[in-house]
Amino acid sequence: MAAPAPLRHLAAAFRFLTRLPVPGPALPAPELGRVLAWFPVPGLVLGALAAGFAQVLAGRLAPPVAAALIVAGLAWLTGALHLDGLADVADGLGGGHGDAGRTLAIMRDSRIGAFGAVAVALLLAVKVTAVAELITQRGGWALLCAPAVARFAAVPLVVLFPYARPEGLGRPFHEGGGPRELAIAGAIATAVLAAAGLRSAAPAAAALAAAVAMGLAIRRKLGGLTGDVYGAAVEVAETVFLVCAGLR
Fold it and tell me: Where are the domains of the chain?
């Protein structure tokens, strides 16, 4: 007997966004957009693991060391999928010189260039610093919320913005997703933030604003977004949330 559609879509969200061993059948392309509704859930699980490790490591390791281990763990658990997107976007924008076709061609190249390497290094440095500050402040709530909010932040980019290529990994998500998936993902993310309290409102708003601003800027340059942009938006939104949550 086949599992209900929501369970299949939730399992697919875990398989797409993480390396966690969640079983389930491969989904046909027309169903991939339905997976967007569940994007915050794998993020919440990643956040719970990050917050749990922070609790265990606090007081046993120096905060910067613990933070580096947590950030490395998150990168491993996601297969560095979003970091790869960030690198491709940075290389494309840096080397495309304003030409949309050239930018998209560079983004498709699997090799990392100077712009991509610098972007990833800088983002990881900021993220490690932010996580170290949160460990010092006992800010486990932010480590819990940030991955869920960041994965939700990609959903409006997928649903509301045009896709820049006639094909690509992100296109089935764009074509199959709609207001229903956006509303469900938004409800899940809102529930996570409500559990964390009012202190999560400003970091969440900043993270979402950063993702949307990125989407608007890249749409102006390319006429649409790509799967790499979705991944880059997740990384940027997550980092912005962590930084804002640690502000004193």
Answer: 37-245
